[in-house]
Amino acid sequence: MSAGEGAAAGWSGDTLPPATAEARLWRPAIAVLAYGLPLAFIVVPLVAFLAYSFFSVEGGQMRFDLTLLNYRRFFTDEIFLPVFWRTGLLCLEVAALAIGFGYPVAYLLTTLEGRKRYVLAILLVIPLLMSYVIKIYAIRSILGGNGFLNKALLAIGLIDQPLTFFVFNLNAVLLALTALLIPFAILPIFLSLERIPRSLLDASADLGASGAQTFARVILPLSLPGVVAAATFVFVLAIGDFLTPQMVGGNSGFTFGRIIYSQFGTAFNWPFGAALSVILAAVVMAVIAFGALFGGRRSKSP
Amino acid sequence: MSTDGTLLELKSISKSFGAVEVLRRVNLAVRDGEFMTVLGPSGSGKTTILRMIGGFAAPSSGDILLDARSILGMPINRRPFNTVFQDYALFPHMTVAQNVGYGLTVRGVPRAEVRRQVAEAIELVQLGELAGRLPAQLSGGQRQRVALARAMICQPRLILLDEPLAALDVELRKQMRLFLKNIQREIKTTFLFVTHDQEEAIAMADRICVINYGRILQLGTPHEVYYRPNSEFVARFFGDNNLIEGRLVDGDGAKRRIETPIGTLVCAIDGQPDVASAENGRRAFAVIRPESVAFNRANAAENTATGIIAAVSFGGATTVTEVRIDGADHALGMRVMTPSRVEGAALAPGERVSLAWSAAECRLVLA
Q1: Which site from A229, A290, A301, B91 is most exposed, i.e. has the minimal number of CB atoms within 10 Å?
Q2: Superfamily of segment(s) B240-366
Q3: How many domains does chain A have?
Q4: Predicted structure pTM score
């Protein structure tokens, strides 16, 4: 058998079939497009940003001598690191909440069949098609001091004063981000649940496991790559968001994204904003790499 | 166990998926300790039988009895049966040892005891040094043995095997046949083995149950099913039988004659009341195994034919010769299988030969 395999490998090799003259002509053009477009639209702006982060602004004028001043300011100023840290924690909480709510929904979705599954899937995807701003306004109208949530709680008599702990503060940001990002948690978890062969569940039951045991010992461990992917997605999207904290965060809901935004807006300090963006991008890439490492190792076995 | 040795009994089981009837009033009794093979082409309903016994599907009507008591209401995880799945269904995130011990672990058996029994089971399937590997690091044959060890470890009353050898290559499949048979003898557990491969069935089974279109066509030992098919389907399914169509004529209860394009043949009737009592003129097939036909010995047997050799194919131990029979209005061929000899084929294409076979080796099945 091994001899046969060796022979087969030697025969197939890794060369492509000979190209026709026409295809050979087109190949360089396609290669230029394939590598050129991402280069022009992604790599060049990123490099430009990286370069900006080493410049500085003095009296409203850009100075183009290279300096590490912006990075030093981030690490020494007593405002930025705590906000950065708090924002990271907030986004971890968002990821945890989104998975906590998203996992049961994704699981329900895998158990449904036919039309019911289709309808639920559509319901989950529809929010992704709507404008982000509209969704935030919708959430504001729910969470505000006179919002739907407070009014409802007052109406059924659970409270006699409007609650304030979720009105225009960090909690509001947490809830809003969670609500907005749940679809991004559900989809990867659903995909990983969907990939678990039915026969494994049959085998587990066949060997005497109860439904709960099958879930704990087979389904949950095998869906972990999806959970990791979901956590990565939600965390990365949440940490880069400045619009949501801006609109539902009020004064106390200050996040790192808002700081960056203000550097490009009111503060008009592009180099410092660029430096903060580079730091954020480094964290995001680290998180993605960590997620890929963990999720990838888990899903390698078939 | 009931007194007649029946472990499991299917009573008039039917199963429909929508308008499609997959099984029709199937009756089958599995004896305690036997190796029973359910043999049929794909789509015959054989896997459905297995799934209903395992508890993965419920019959539309009928009953399944274990020790003469119905188990229809018993959930999968309480049935004392374990399955070796077609794709093995090994848990990819667990090691060989964890896979094998799964059944014990979920039953809450103490860890030390699990370890002891797992070591024993892994030893039995000869996977000792692989206990710490993940399924992805195993070959097909090794996965197969893990699946078997996992199914055996809870000492089920019955092990269900769903085409477990289908994914293996030919050589390995032959080894695994022997291996499975030996294991079954060693652990003295009843095996219900589903396959579409008649060679596999013959090689392993104590009894074969041939099924097609959701009906059991024949149940018997491999020898019976091989040499005494009771229907056209079974006769064709077992390899290279010669089937010659004709019309039944007179008989004497022990033998009956059939008029065919190659002449009137005399065939033995052996436990076939349907053939014995069929009216004259009824369409039927004479079934002749290729290894039962002898060359050029015309006076020794009841049935003879002459023809021209169309092809000779050397197949190692045996040589198959195709003979175009004289007298047939269309080119009717017969396959003759003879042991190969060092001197090579004494016969060559184009040569004229006579064929002979006895009545005992010519069987009738109704068309």
Answers
A1: A290
A2: Nucleic acid-binding proteins (2.40.50.140)
A3: 1
A4: 0.80
